[in-house]
Write a structure and sequence with these properties.
Blueprint (H helix, E strand, L loop, with lengths): L4 H6 L6 H9 L1 H6 L6 H9 L5 E6 L26 H4 L3 E5 L4 E2 L20 H11 L4 E2 L23 H5 L5 H17 L9 H16 L18 H6 L2 H10 L18 H13 L6 E10 L8 E2 L7 E9 L5 E6 L9 H19 L3 H4 L4 E4 L6 H9 L3 E5 L14 H4 L7 E6 L4 E6 L3 E6 L8 E7 L4 E7 L1 H9 L2 H11 L11 H21 L6 H16 L13 H5 L5 H4 L7 E3 L6 E2 L8 E2 L1 E3 L8 H9 L2
Parallel strand pairs: 5-9, 9-10
Antiparallel strand pairs: 1-2, 2-3, 4-11, 5-7, 6-7, 7-8, 10-13, 11-12, 12-13, 14-15, 16-19, 17-18
Helix pairs in contact: 9-20
Length: about 625
Protein backbone atom coordinates (compact mmCIF):
# COMPACT_ATOMS: atom_id res chain seq x y z
CA UNK A 1 0.00 0.00 0.00
CA UNK A 2 1.30 3.49 -0.90
CA UNK A 3 0.23 6.87 0.39
CA UNK A 4 0.70 10.22 -1.31
CA UNK A 5 2.58 12.55 1.04
CA UNK A 6 0.48 15.58 0.04
CA UNK A 7 -2.64 13.64 1.00
CA UNK A 8 -1.12 12.80 4.37
CA UNK A 9 -0.13 16.37 5.13
CA UNK A 10 -2.84 18.49 3.53
CA UNK A 11 -6.16 16.68 3.28
CA UNK A 12 -6.89 15.14 6.68
CA UNK A 13 -9.78 16.73 8.59
CA UNK A 14 -9.93 18.46 11.98
CA UNK A 15 -12.88 16.45 13.28
CA UNK A 16 -11.24 13.80 15.41
CA UNK A 17 -7.75 15.16 16.21
CA UNK A 18 -8.47 14.96 19.94
CA UNK A 19 -9.32 11.28 19.68
CA UNK A 20 -6.09 10.60 17.79
CA UNK A 21 -4.01 12.46 20.38
CA UNK A 22 -5.72 10.49 23.15
CA UNK A 23 -4.99 7.24 21.34
CA UNK A 24 -1.31 8.03 20.81
CA UNK A 25 -0.67 9.68 24.15
CA UNK A 26 -2.60 7.29 26.42
CA UNK A 27 -0.33 5.57 28.98
CA UNK A 28 -1.50 2.13 27.93
CA UNK A 29 -0.65 2.75 24.27
CA UNK A 30 2.78 4.15 25.05
CA UNK A 31 3.52 1.37 27.53
CA UNK A 32 2.59 -1.32 25.00
CA UNK A 33 4.75 0.24 22.28
CA UNK A 34 7.95 -1.76 22.74
CA UNK A 35 9.33 -0.66 19.38
CA UNK A 36 9.26 2.37 17.07
CA UNK A 37 6.10 2.74 14.98
CA UNK A 38 6.65 2.85 11.23
CA UNK A 39 5.16 5.26 8.71
CA UNK A 40 2.89 2.51 7.41
CA UNK A 41 1.52 1.79 10.90
CA UNK A 42 0.91 5.46 11.62
CA UNK A 43 -0.91 6.00 8.32
CA UNK A 44 -3.12 2.97 8.93
CA UNK A 45 -4.06 4.40 12.34
CA UNK A 46 -4.87 7.79 10.83
CA UNK A 47 -6.52 6.72 7.58
CA UNK A 48 -9.84 5.36 8.87
CA UNK A 49 -10.94 8.36 10.96
CA UNK A 50 -9.27 11.15 8.89
CA UNK A 51 -7.32 12.80 11.68
CA UNK A 52 -5.81 16.25 11.14
CA UNK A 53 -2.05 16.27 11.34
CA UNK A 54 0.19 19.26 10.80
CA UNK A 55 3.39 17.41 9.90
CA UNK A 56 4.65 13.88 9.51
CA UNK A 57 8.40 13.51 10.18
CA UNK A 58 9.92 10.46 8.48
CA UNK A 59 13.22 9.00 9.66
CA UNK A 60 15.43 8.38 6.58
CA UNK A 61 15.45 4.64 5.76
CA UNK A 62 18.48 2.52 5.09
CA UNK A 63 20.32 3.21 1.81
CA UNK A 64 19.89 1.00 -1.18
CA UNK A 65 22.39 0.46 -3.97
CA UNK A 66 19.57 -0.10 -6.45
CA UNK A 67 17.92 3.26 -5.66
CA UNK A 68 20.36 5.26 -7.78
CA UNK A 69 17.66 6.62 -10.07
CA UNK A 70 14.23 8.09 -9.50
CA UNK A 71 11.18 7.97 -11.74
CA UNK A 72 11.07 11.69 -12.54
CA UNK A 73 11.91 13.08 -15.96
CA UNK A 74 15.44 14.44 -15.68
CA UNK A 75 14.94 17.50 -17.90
CA UNK A 76 11.38 18.62 -17.22
CA UNK A 77 11.41 17.94 -13.47
CA UNK A 78 9.52 15.53 -11.24
CA UNK A 79 6.29 15.78 -9.29
CA UNK A 80 5.79 14.66 -5.70
CA UNK A 81 5.86 10.88 -5.77
CA UNK A 82 4.27 8.21 -3.59
CA UNK A 83 6.18 6.97 -0.60
CA UNK A 84 8.41 3.99 -1.32
CA UNK A 85 8.25 0.72 0.56
CA UNK A 86 11.50 1.55 2.38
CA UNK A 87 10.02 4.86 3.55
CA UNK A 88 6.86 3.15 4.78
CA UNK A 89 9.00 0.87 6.94
CA UNK A 90 10.97 3.79 8.43
CA UNK A 91 10.39 5.26 11.90
CA UNK A 92 8.30 8.41 12.09
CA UNK A 93 6.91 11.17 14.27
CA UNK A 94 3.51 12.92 14.11
CA UNK A 95 2.72 16.55 14.91
CA UNK A 96 -1.05 17.10 15.23
CA UNK A 97 -3.00 20.23 14.37
CA UNK A 98 -3.24 21.22 18.05
CA UNK A 99 0.60 21.25 18.22
CA UNK A 100 0.69 18.05 20.27
CA UNK A 101 3.64 15.90 19.30
CA UNK A 102 4.04 12.15 19.58
CA UNK A 103 7.69 11.20 19.31
CA UNK A 104 7.43 7.64 18.06
CA UNK A 105 11.12 7.29 17.36
CA UNK A 106 13.16 7.84 20.56
CA UNK A 107 16.27 8.68 18.51
CA UNK A 108 14.65 11.86 17.13
CA UNK A 109 15.77 14.84 19.24
CA UNK A 110 13.39 17.58 20.31
CA UNK A 111 15.87 20.10 18.91
CA UNK A 112 15.24 18.64 15.45
CA UNK A 113 11.75 20.15 15.23
CA UNK A 114 11.17 22.96 12.81
CA UNK A 115 10.71 26.54 13.85
CA UNK A 116 7.40 27.17 15.57
CA UNK A 117 6.90 23.59 16.84
CA UNK A 118 5.89 23.12 20.47
CA UNK A 119 8.31 20.37 21.48
CA UNK A 120 7.65 18.13 24.48
CA UNK A 121 11.00 16.99 25.93
CA UNK A 122 11.37 13.72 27.78
CA UNK A 123 11.18 13.62 31.61
CA UNK A 124 14.87 12.77 31.82
CA UNK A 125 15.89 15.78 29.72
CA UNK A 126 13.46 18.02 31.60
CA UNK A 127 14.93 16.98 34.96
CA UNK A 128 18.46 17.61 33.72
CA UNK A 129 17.49 21.06 32.44
CA UNK A 130 15.77 21.97 35.72
CA UNK A 131 18.92 21.08 37.67
CA UNK A 132 21.01 23.29 35.43
CA UNK A 133 18.57 26.22 35.63
CA UNK A 134 18.81 26.25 39.41
CA UNK A 135 22.48 27.13 39.12
CA UNK A 136 21.77 30.49 37.46
CA UNK A 137 20.63 33.67 39.15
CA UNK A 138 18.99 36.34 37.02
CA UNK A 139 19.00 40.07 37.61
CA UNK A 140 18.09 43.35 35.92
CA UNK A 141 21.54 44.38 34.73
CA UNK A 142 23.19 44.77 31.34
CA UNK A 143 25.98 42.60 29.96
CA UNK A 144 29.46 44.06 30.36
CA UNK A 145 31.24 41.73 27.95
CA UNK A 146 33.00 43.17 24.93
CA UNK A 147 34.37 41.58 21.76
CA UNK A 148 37.87 40.18 22.12
CA UNK A 149 40.66 41.21 19.77
CA UNK A 150 40.52 39.31 16.48
CA UNK A 151 43.48 39.22 14.05
CA UNK A 152 43.09 41.11 10.78
CA UNK A 153 41.86 39.09 7.82
CA UNK A 154 44.57 38.47 5.22
CA UNK A 155 43.43 37.41 1.73
CA UNK A 156 46.65 38.49 0.00
CA UNK A 157 47.69 34.94 -0.98
CA UNK A 158 44.68 34.77 -3.34
CA UNK A 159 45.45 38.08 -5.06
CA UNK A 160 47.10 36.68 -8.21
CA UNK A 161 44.71 33.76 -8.75
CA UNK A 162 42.55 33.68 -11.88
CA UNK A 163 38.90 32.51 -11.61
CA UNK A 164 39.60 28.97 -12.78
CA UNK A 165 42.60 28.69 -10.43
CA UNK A 166 40.40 29.70 -7.50
CA UNK A 167 37.83 27.06 -8.44
CA UNK A 168 40.60 24.46 -8.58
CA UNK A 169 41.44 25.20 -4.96
CA UNK A 170 38.25 23.22 -4.23
CA UNK A 171 37.63 21.05 -7.31
CA UNK A 172 41.31 20.24 -7.59
CA UNK A 173 43.36 17.46 -9.16
CA UNK A 174 42.68 15.22 -6.17
CA UNK A 175 38.93 15.26 -6.83
CA UNK A 176 39.32 14.83 -10.59
CA UNK A 177 41.63 11.86 -10.04
CA UNK A 178 39.16 10.32 -7.58
CA UNK A 179 36.32 10.60 -10.12
CA UNK A 180 38.48 9.22 -12.94
CA UNK A 181 39.40 6.24 -10.74
CA UNK A 182 35.77 5.48 -9.83
CA UNK A 183 34.31 5.74 -13.35
CA UNK A 184 35.83 2.47 -14.70
CA UNK A 185 34.93 0.68 -11.45
CA UNK A 186 31.31 1.76 -11.83
CA UNK A 187 31.33 0.76 -15.51
CA UNK A 188 32.52 -2.70 -14.48
CA UNK A 189 29.78 -2.84 -11.82
CA UNK A 190 27.22 -2.06 -14.54
CA UNK A 191 28.86 -4.72 -16.76
CA UNK A 192 29.62 -2.16 -19.47
CA UNK A 193 32.86 -1.15 -21.23
CA UNK A 194 35.16 1.41 -19.66
CA UNK A 195 34.25 4.83 -21.17
CA UNK A 196 37.91 5.90 -20.81
CA UNK A 197 37.09 9.44 -19.69
CA UNK A 198 40.06 11.84 -19.64
CA UNK A 199 40.71 14.66 -17.23
CA UNK A 200 40.28 17.22 -20.02
CA UNK A 201 36.85 15.80 -20.87
CA UNK A 202 35.87 15.89 -17.20
CA UNK A 203 36.80 19.57 -16.97
CA UNK A 204 34.77 20.33 -20.08
CA UNK A 205 31.87 18.40 -18.52
CA UNK A 206 32.13 20.58 -15.38
CA UNK A 207 32.24 23.72 -17.53
CA UNK A 208 29.04 22.76 -19.37
CA UNK A 209 27.28 22.22 -16.05
CA UNK A 210 28.34 25.67 -14.84
CA UNK A 211 27.30 27.21 -18.15
CA UNK A 212 23.82 25.72 -17.81
CA UNK A 213 23.29 27.88 -14.73
CA UNK A 214 23.32 31.17 -16.64
CA UNK A 215 22.43 29.90 -20.13
CA UNK A 216 19.32 27.82 -19.48
CA UNK A 217 17.69 25.63 -22.12
CA UNK A 218 14.71 23.23 -21.81
CA UNK A 219 17.02 20.19 -21.69
CA UNK A 220 20.67 19.26 -21.97
CA UNK A 221 20.37 17.96 -25.53
CA UNK A 222 19.36 21.39 -26.81
CA UNK A 223 22.92 22.72 -26.35
CA UNK A 224 23.80 20.63 -29.43
CA UNK A 225 20.56 21.34 -31.31
CA UNK A 226 20.88 22.11 -35.00
CA UNK A 227 18.62 25.17 -34.77
CA UNK A 228 20.33 28.56 -34.35
CA UNK A 229 17.86 29.57 -31.62
CA UNK A 230 19.05 26.76 -29.32
CA UNK A 231 22.52 25.58 -30.22
CA UNK A 232 25.48 26.78 -28.14
CA UNK A 233 28.51 27.04 -30.38
CA UNK A 234 31.11 26.88 -27.60
CA UNK A 235 29.60 23.71 -26.14
CA UNK A 236 29.19 22.15 -29.58
CA UNK A 237 32.82 22.86 -30.40
CA UNK A 238 34.16 21.52 -27.08
CA UNK A 239 32.45 18.14 -26.61
CA UNK A 240 30.08 15.86 -28.45
CA UNK A 241 26.53 15.47 -27.15
CA UNK A 242 26.65 11.69 -26.76
CA UNK A 243 30.01 11.89 -25.01
CA UNK A 244 28.62 14.38 -22.49
CA UNK A 245 25.64 12.10 -21.78
CA UNK A 246 27.99 9.12 -21.44
CA UNK A 247 30.15 10.92 -18.86
CA UNK A 248 27.01 11.92 -16.97
CA UNK A 249 25.84 8.29 -16.99
CA UNK A 250 29.08 6.87 -15.52
CA UNK A 251 29.93 9.73 -13.14
CA UNK A 252 30.56 8.17 -9.73
CA UNK A 253 32.36 8.90 -6.45
CA UNK A 254 32.34 5.66 -4.41
CA UNK A 255 32.68 1.95 -5.06
CA UNK A 256 29.29 0.22 -4.99
CA UNK A 257 31.01 -2.95 -3.79
CA UNK A 258 32.16 -1.13 -0.63
CA UNK A 259 28.77 0.13 0.55
CA UNK A 260 28.48 1.55 4.07
CA UNK A 261 24.94 0.64 5.14
CA UNK A 262 25.13 2.99 8.15
CA UNK A 263 25.70 6.07 5.99
CA UNK A 264 22.75 7.08 3.82
CA UNK A 265 24.98 9.42 1.78
CA UNK A 266 27.79 6.92 1.22
CA UNK A 267 27.67 7.37 -2.56
CA UNK A 268 28.79 10.98 -2.12
CA UNK A 269 30.77 10.69 1.11
CA UNK A 270 34.28 10.76 -0.48
CA UNK A 271 33.43 13.95 -2.38
CA UNK A 272 31.72 15.52 0.65
CA UNK A 273 34.70 14.86 2.91
CA UNK A 274 37.19 16.27 0.43
CA UNK A 275 35.17 19.47 -0.08
CA UNK A 276 34.59 19.91 3.66
CA UNK A 277 38.36 19.79 4.23
CA UNK A 278 39.07 22.19 1.37
CA UNK A 279 36.42 24.71 2.46
CA UNK A 280 37.93 24.77 5.95
CA UNK A 281 41.50 24.88 4.60
CA UNK A 282 40.87 28.00 2.50
CA UNK A 283 38.71 29.71 5.10
CA UNK A 284 40.33 32.99 6.08
CA UNK A 285 39.14 33.50 9.70
CA UNK A 286 36.67 36.34 10.17
CA UNK A 287 35.34 37.33 13.61
CA UNK A 288 31.66 36.49 12.97
CA UNK A 289 30.02 33.34 11.62
CA UNK A 290 26.37 32.37 11.14
CA UNK A 291 24.92 28.86 11.42
CA UNK A 292 21.64 27.99 9.75
CA UNK A 293 19.86 25.40 7.62
CA UNK A 294 19.94 25.45 3.83
CA UNK A 295 17.79 23.46 1.39
CA UNK A 296 18.79 21.65 -1.81
CA UNK A 297 15.77 21.35 -4.09
CA UNK A 298 14.84 17.74 -4.90
CA UNK A 299 11.44 16.31 -5.88
CA UNK A 300 12.13 12.61 -6.37
CA UNK A 301 11.62 9.85 -3.79
CA UNK A 302 14.43 9.46 -1.25
CA UNK A 303 14.54 8.83 2.47
CA UNK A 304 16.67 11.89 3.25
CA UNK A 305 14.27 14.30 1.53
CA UNK A 306 12.73 16.80 3.95
CA UNK A 307 9.68 19.05 3.92
CA UNK A 308 9.95 22.45 5.62
CA UNK A 309 6.83 24.58 5.51
CA UNK A 310 7.34 28.27 4.77
CA UNK A 311 10.79 27.91 3.18
CA UNK A 312 11.51 29.14 -0.38
CA UNK A 313 12.55 25.55 -1.16
CA UNK A 314 10.10 23.32 0.70
CA UNK A 315 11.11 19.88 -0.59
CA UNK A 316 14.68 18.65 -0.73
CA UNK A 317 17.77 17.80 1.27
CA UNK A 318 18.48 19.84 4.41
CA UNK A 319 22.04 21.04 4.94
CA UNK A 320 23.44 22.47 8.19
CA UNK A 321 25.67 25.35 7.02
CA UNK A 322 28.33 27.48 8.73
CA UNK A 323 28.90 30.71 6.77
CA UNK A 324 30.73 34.00 6.96
CA UNK A 325 28.58 37.16 6.75
CA UNK A 326 29.54 37.50 3.06
CA UNK A 327 28.25 33.99 2.27
CA UNK A 328 31.45 31.89 2.13
CA UNK A 329 30.56 28.32 3.17
CA UNK A 330 33.05 27.32 5.87
CA UNK A 331 31.63 23.85 6.54
CA UNK A 332 28.42 21.89 6.04
CA UNK A 333 26.65 18.64 6.88
CA UNK A 334 23.78 17.07 4.93
CA UNK A 335 21.08 15.94 7.38
CA UNK A 336 20.16 12.27 7.22
CA UNK A 337 18.57 11.49 10.59
CA UNK A 338 20.62 8.91 12.46
CA UNK A 339 24.17 9.56 11.32
CA UNK A 340 27.37 7.69 12.15
CA UNK A 341 29.30 10.88 11.40
CA UNK A 342 27.72 12.62 14.42
CA UNK A 343 29.25 12.56 17.89
CA UNK A 344 26.69 10.81 20.11
CA UNK A 345 27.79 12.65 23.27
CA UNK A 346 27.27 16.01 21.58
CA UNK A 347 23.92 14.86 20.23
CA UNK A 348 22.66 13.87 23.70
CA UNK A 349 23.73 17.23 25.10
CA UNK A 350 22.76 19.66 22.32
CA UNK A 351 20.34 17.75 20.04
CA UNK A 352 20.60 16.87 16.36
CA UNK A 353 20.29 20.44 15.09
CA UNK A 354 23.11 22.06 17.12
CA UNK A 355 25.53 19.11 17.23
CA UNK A 356 26.92 19.68 13.68
CA UNK A 357 27.89 23.23 14.72
CA UNK A 358 30.07 21.93 17.55
CA UNK A 359 31.68 19.37 15.26
CA UNK A 360 32.35 22.01 12.61
CA UNK A 361 34.19 24.10 15.19
CA UNK A 362 36.17 21.02 16.22
CA UNK A 363 37.26 20.54 12.59
CA UNK A 364 39.27 23.81 12.66
CA UNK A 365 43.02 23.55 13.06
CA UNK A 366 44.50 24.53 16.42
CA UNK A 367 45.35 28.11 15.43
CA UNK A 368 41.86 28.78 14.06
CA UNK A 369 40.06 26.94 16.87
CA UNK A 370 41.62 29.23 19.48
CA UNK A 371 40.23 32.41 17.90
CA UNK A 372 37.31 34.16 19.69
CA UNK A 373 34.60 33.66 17.06
CA UNK A 374 31.14 35.19 17.50
CA UNK A 375 28.48 32.73 16.33
CA UNK A 376 24.91 33.61 15.31
CA UNK A 377 21.99 31.18 14.94
CA UNK A 378 18.18 31.17 15.03
CA UNK A 379 15.71 29.73 17.52
CA UNK A 380 15.93 26.19 16.10
CA UNK A 381 19.39 25.91 17.67
CA UNK A 382 19.54 28.39 20.57
CA UNK A 383 19.44 26.98 24.09
CA UNK A 384 21.07 27.72 27.42
CA UNK A 385 23.29 24.64 27.18
CA UNK A 386 24.67 25.67 23.79
CA UNK A 387 25.37 29.26 24.87
CA UNK A 388 27.00 28.12 28.10
CA UNK A 389 29.19 25.58 26.28
CA UNK A 390 30.33 28.11 23.65
CA UNK A 391 31.21 30.59 26.38
CA UNK A 392 33.29 27.99 28.23
CA UNK A 393 35.15 27.19 25.00
CA UNK A 394 36.01 30.86 24.42
CA UNK A 395 33.38 31.64 21.78
CA UNK A 396 30.52 34.14 21.74
CA UNK A 397 26.98 33.06 20.94
CA UNK A 398 23.91 35.06 19.92
CA UNK A 399 20.57 33.79 18.72
CA UNK A 400 16.82 34.20 18.83
CA UNK A 401 15.33 31.84 21.39
CA UNK A 402 11.91 30.27 21.81
CA UNK A 403 9.90 31.36 24.81
CA UNK A 404 9.65 27.75 26.02
CA UNK A 405 13.47 27.53 26.21
CA UNK A 406 13.88 30.58 28.44
CA UNK A 407 14.42 29.32 32.02
CA UNK A 408 11.54 29.85 34.41
CA UNK A 409 13.94 31.53 36.83
CA UNK A 410 14.45 34.25 34.22
CA UNK A 411 11.40 36.35 35.12
CA UNK A 412 11.32 38.33 31.88
CA UNK A 413 7.97 39.73 30.72
CA UNK A 414 5.98 37.09 28.77
CA UNK A 415 5.34 37.56 25.05
CA UNK A 416 1.58 37.82 25.52
CA UNK A 417 2.09 40.83 27.81
CA UNK A 418 4.69 42.41 25.53
CA UNK A 419 2.23 42.40 22.63
CA UNK A 420 -0.01 44.80 24.54
CA UNK A 421 2.77 47.41 24.71
CA UNK A 422 3.79 49.89 22.03
CA UNK A 423 6.45 49.11 19.46
CA UNK A 424 10.00 49.70 20.62
CA UNK A 425 9.41 48.54 24.20
CA UNK A 426 12.02 46.12 25.51
CA UNK A 427 12.99 44.31 28.69
CA UNK A 428 15.95 42.11 29.63
CA UNK A 429 17.52 39.91 32.29
CA UNK A 430 21.12 38.80 32.75
CA UNK A 431 22.39 35.68 34.53
CA UNK A 432 25.31 35.46 36.89
CA UNK A 433 27.27 33.38 34.33
CA UNK A 434 27.00 36.03 31.61
CA UNK A 435 23.95 35.10 29.49
CA UNK A 436 21.71 38.03 28.58
CA UNK A 437 18.09 37.49 27.47
CA UNK A 438 16.30 40.49 25.94
CA UNK A 439 12.76 40.75 24.58
CA UNK A 440 11.83 43.52 22.16
CA UNK A 441 8.41 44.41 20.81
CA UNK A 442 8.34 45.09 17.08
CA UNK A 443 5.49 43.85 14.88
CA UNK A 444 5.72 40.82 17.15
CA UNK A 445 7.81 39.92 20.18
CA UNK A 446 11.46 39.06 19.47
CA UNK A 447 13.55 37.28 22.11
CA UNK A 448 17.33 37.13 21.77
CA UNK A 449 19.88 35.43 24.04
CA UNK A 450 23.57 36.35 23.89
CA UNK A 451 26.87 36.02 25.73
CA UNK A 452 28.57 39.01 24.10
CA UNK A 453 26.28 41.88 23.05
CA UNK A 454 24.65 44.30 25.45
CA UNK A 455 21.36 46.17 25.39
CA UNK A 456 23.01 49.60 25.50
CA UNK A 457 23.61 51.77 23.64
CA UNK A 458 20.02 51.65 22.42
CA UNK A 459 19.67 52.55 18.74
CA UNK A 460 16.67 53.42 16.60
CA UNK A 461 15.13 51.78 13.58
CA UNK A 462 12.68 53.10 10.98
CA UNK A 463 9.20 51.56 10.96
CA UNK A 464 5.89 52.46 9.34
CA UNK A 465 3.10 53.43 11.74
CA UNK A 466 -0.42 52.61 10.56
CA UNK A 467 -1.82 54.79 13.32
CA UNK A 468 0.13 57.90 12.35
CA UNK A 469 0.29 56.91 8.64
CA UNK A 470 3.96 57.71 8.34
CA UNK A 471 7.41 56.31 9.09
CA UNK A 472 8.61 56.73 12.66
CA UNK A 473 11.77 55.89 14.59
CA UNK A 474 11.44 53.35 17.41
CA UNK A 475 14.06 52.23 19.98
CA UNK A 476 15.95 48.99 19.37
CA UNK A 477 18.49 47.32 21.72
CA UNK A 478 22.02 46.90 20.43
CA UNK A 479 22.00 43.08 20.46
CA UNK A 480 18.93 42.97 18.15
CA UNK A 481 20.69 45.10 15.56
CA UNK A 482 23.90 43.05 15.79
CA UNK A 483 22.00 39.82 15.34
CA UNK A 484 20.20 41.16 12.23
CA UNK A 485 23.48 42.39 10.81
CA UNK A 486 25.46 39.16 11.02
CA UNK A 487 22.90 36.35 10.86
CA UNK A 488 22.24 36.29 7.11
CA UNK A 489 25.35 34.52 5.79
CA UNK A 490 23.57 31.28 4.89
CA UNK A 491 20.68 33.11 3.25
CA UNK A 492 23.17 35.13 1.20
CA UNK A 493 24.89 31.92 0.09
CA UNK A 494 21.51 30.47 -0.95
CA UNK A 495 20.77 33.61 -2.94
CA UNK A 496 24.13 33.43 -4.74
CA UNK A 497 23.77 29.73 -5.53
CA UNK A 498 20.17 29.90 -6.72
CA UNK A 499 20.76 32.95 -8.91
CA UNK A 500 22.66 30.81 -11.46
CA UNK A 501 21.97 27.28 -10.23
CA UNK A 502 22.98 24.41 -12.54
CA UNK A 503 19.90 23.63 -14.63
CA UNK A 504 20.90 20.27 -16.14
CA UNK A 505 18.91 17.63 -14.30
CA UNK A 506 19.80 13.99 -13.64
CA UNK A 507 17.78 10.95 -12.63
CA UNK A 508 20.04 9.84 -9.79
CA UNK A 509 19.06 10.87 -6.26
CA UNK A 510 22.50 12.32 -5.49
CA UNK A 511 22.66 14.49 -8.64
CA UNK A 512 21.07 17.56 -7.00
CA UNK A 513 23.52 17.34 -4.07
CA UNK A 514 26.49 17.01 -6.44
CA UNK A 515 25.45 20.02 -8.54
CA UNK A 516 24.86 22.00 -5.31
CA UNK A 517 28.40 21.14 -4.17
CA UNK A 518 29.76 22.37 -7.51
CA UNK A 519 27.70 25.57 -7.33
CA UNK A 520 28.86 26.22 -3.76
CA UNK A 521 32.50 25.63 -4.76
CA UNK A 522 32.17 28.25 -7.51
CA UNK A 523 30.46 30.60 -5.05
CA UNK A 524 33.27 30.15 -2.51
CA UNK A 525 35.89 30.77 -5.20
CA UNK A 526 34.07 33.96 -6.18
CA UNK A 527 33.99 35.09 -2.54
CA UNK A 528 37.79 34.72 -2.35
CA UNK A 529 38.10 36.68 -5.61
CA UNK A 530 35.97 39.51 -4.22
CA UNK A 531 37.96 39.57 -0.98
CA UNK A 532 41.10 40.71 -2.83
CA UNK A 533 39.31 43.67 -4.40
CA UNK A 534 37.94 42.19 -7.63
CA UNK A 535 34.76 43.77 -8.96
CA UNK A 536 33.73 40.83 -11.15
CA UNK A 537 30.11 39.85 -10.70
CA UNK A 538 29.34 36.20 -10.06
CA UNK A 539 28.06 35.86 -13.63
CA UNK A 540 31.26 37.30 -15.09
CA UNK A 541 33.30 35.07 -12.79
CA UNK A 542 31.49 31.95 -14.00
CA UNK A 543 31.83 32.97 -17.64
CA UNK A 544 35.61 33.35 -17.21
CA UNK A 545 35.82 29.78 -15.88
CA UNK A 546 33.59 28.34 -18.60
CA UNK A 547 35.38 30.07 -21.46
CA UNK A 548 38.78 28.94 -20.21
CA UNK A 549 37.78 25.30 -19.73
CA UNK A 550 35.89 25.00 -23.02
CA UNK A 551 38.61 26.62 -25.13
CA UNK A 552 41.59 25.04 -23.32
CA UNK A 553 40.32 21.49 -22.86
CA UNK A 554 37.59 21.19 -25.49
CA UNK A 555 38.01 18.81 -28.43
CA UNK A 556 36.10 19.76 -31.56
CA UNK A 557 34.30 16.90 -33.33
CA UNK A 558 35.87 15.89 -36.62
CA UNK A 559 33.76 16.83 -39.61
CA UNK A 560 33.90 15.79 -43.23
CA UNK A 561 36.45 17.37 -45.56
CA UNK A 562 39.74 19.14 -44.96
CA UNK A 563 40.11 21.40 -41.89
CA UNK A 564 39.83 25.13 -42.55
CA UNK A 565 42.97 27.26 -42.34
CA UNK A 566 41.39 30.66 -42.93
CA UNK A 567 41.99 33.49 -40.51
CA UNK A 568 38.25 33.82 -39.88
CA UNK A 569 38.09 30.29 -38.51
CA UNK A 570 40.92 31.07 -36.07
CA UNK A 571 39.79 34.34 -34.59
CA UNK A 572 36.18 35.08 -35.57
CA UNK A 573 33.62 34.21 -32.93
CA UNK A 574 36.23 33.25 -30.34
CA UNK A 575 35.14 35.94 -27.92
CA UNK A 576 33.02 39.12 -28.00
CA UNK A 577 34.56 42.49 -28.85
CA UNK A 578 33.57 43.79 -25.39
CA UNK A 579 36.23 41.47 -23.93
CA UNK A 580 38.76 41.66 -26.76
CA UNK A 581 38.94 45.47 -26.66
CA UNK A 582 38.29 46.15 -22.95
CA UNK A 583 41.99 46.80 -22.26
CA UNK A 584 42.02 44.89 -18.97
CA UNK A 585 44.22 41.98 -17.89
CA UNK A 586 45.50 41.00 -21.34
CA UNK A 587 48.99 39.49 -20.94
CA UNK A 588 51.35 37.56 -23.18
CA UNK A 589 51.87 34.04 -21.84
CA UNK A 590 53.46 30.84 -23.07
CA UNK A 591 51.04 28.31 -24.56
CA UNK A 592 49.91 25.41 -22.40
CA UNK A 593 52.51 22.65 -22.74
CA UNK A 594 54.66 24.98 -24.86
CA UNK A 595 52.59 24.00 -27.90
CA UNK A 596 52.66 25.95 -31.16
CA UNK A 597 49.51 27.86 -32.16
CA UNK A 598 48.63 29.87 -35.22
CA UNK A 599 48.66 33.61 -34.64
CA UNK A 600 45.19 35.18 -34.64
CA UNK A 601 46.46 38.41 -36.20
CA UNK A 602 44.51 39.37 -39.31
CA UNK A 603 47.38 39.24 -41.81
CA UNK A 604 49.92 37.21 -39.82
CA UNK A 605 50.85 33.69 -40.98
CA UNK A 606 53.24 32.81 -38.17
CA UNK A 607 52.86 29.85 -35.81
CA UNK A 608 54.27 30.66 -32.37
CA UNK A 609 54.32 29.56 -28.74
CA UNK A 610 52.73 32.66 -27.15
CA UNK A 611 49.10 33.59 -26.51
CA UNK A 612 46.87 36.10 -24.73
CA UNK A 613 46.05 35.00 -21.17
CA UNK A 614 42.52 36.43 -21.25
CA UNK A 615 41.44 35.87 -24.86
CA UNK A 616 43.14 32.45 -25.03
CA UNK A 617 44.13 32.84 -28.70
CA UNK A 618 47.56 32.37 -30.22
CA UNK A 619 49.31 35.72 -30.75
CA UNK A 620 52.84 36.66 -31.68
CA UNK A 621 54.41 39.66 -29.96
CA UNK A 622 54.15 41.93 -33.01
CA UNK A 623 50.39 41.28 -33.42
CA UNK A 624 49.48 41.52 -29.73
CA UNK A 625 48.75 45.27 -29.61
CA UNK A 626 46.97 45.36 -32.98
CA UNK A 627 44.71 42.45 -32.06
CA UNK A 628 43.51 44.17 -28.86
CA UNK A 629 43.11 47.68 -30.23
CA UNK A 630 42.06 47.08 -33.84
CA UNK A 631 44.61 49.62 -35.04
Amino acid sequence: MKYHITTVILFLSLAQAAEVCRRFFSPSTMAQSKRNLTVDEILQELEDDEKDISRLYIEPPEPNVESDEDSADEDEGGMLDNLTGRQLRAGAEVLFANNARTQLDPELSTDDAEEGDNCKPSKKNEKRKRNQRKQRKWGKHDLCNSLSHFPECDFSKYRDFSPYELLELFFDEDIFNMILAEIPIYAQFKNEPDPAVTKAELKVFIAVLILSGYNRLPGKRFYWDSGPDMRNEMVHAAIRRDRFIQIMKFLHFADNNAMDSRDKLWKLRPLIKKLQNKFVKHFVPVPRLSYDESMIAYYGPHGCKQFIKGKPIRFGYKVWSLNTPSGYLVNFDVYQGKNVQINEDYEKQFGKAATPLIQMIDSFDDDTKNLPFSLYFDNLFTGMELLSYLKQEGYNGTGTIRESRVPKECTIMPCKDMKKLERGTFTYKCSDDGILVARWQDTGSVTVATTVHSVNPVGHVRRYSKKEKKYIMIPRPLLIGEYNKYMGGTDLMDENVNRHRISIRGKKWWWSIFTWLLDVSVQNAWQLHRSVGSKLTQLEFKREIVRFYLTSYGSSPRGAGRPSTSKASVSKGRLPDSIRYDGKNHYIIQNLGNKRRRCAGEYCKSVGRTACSKCDVGLCVSCFLTYHTGK
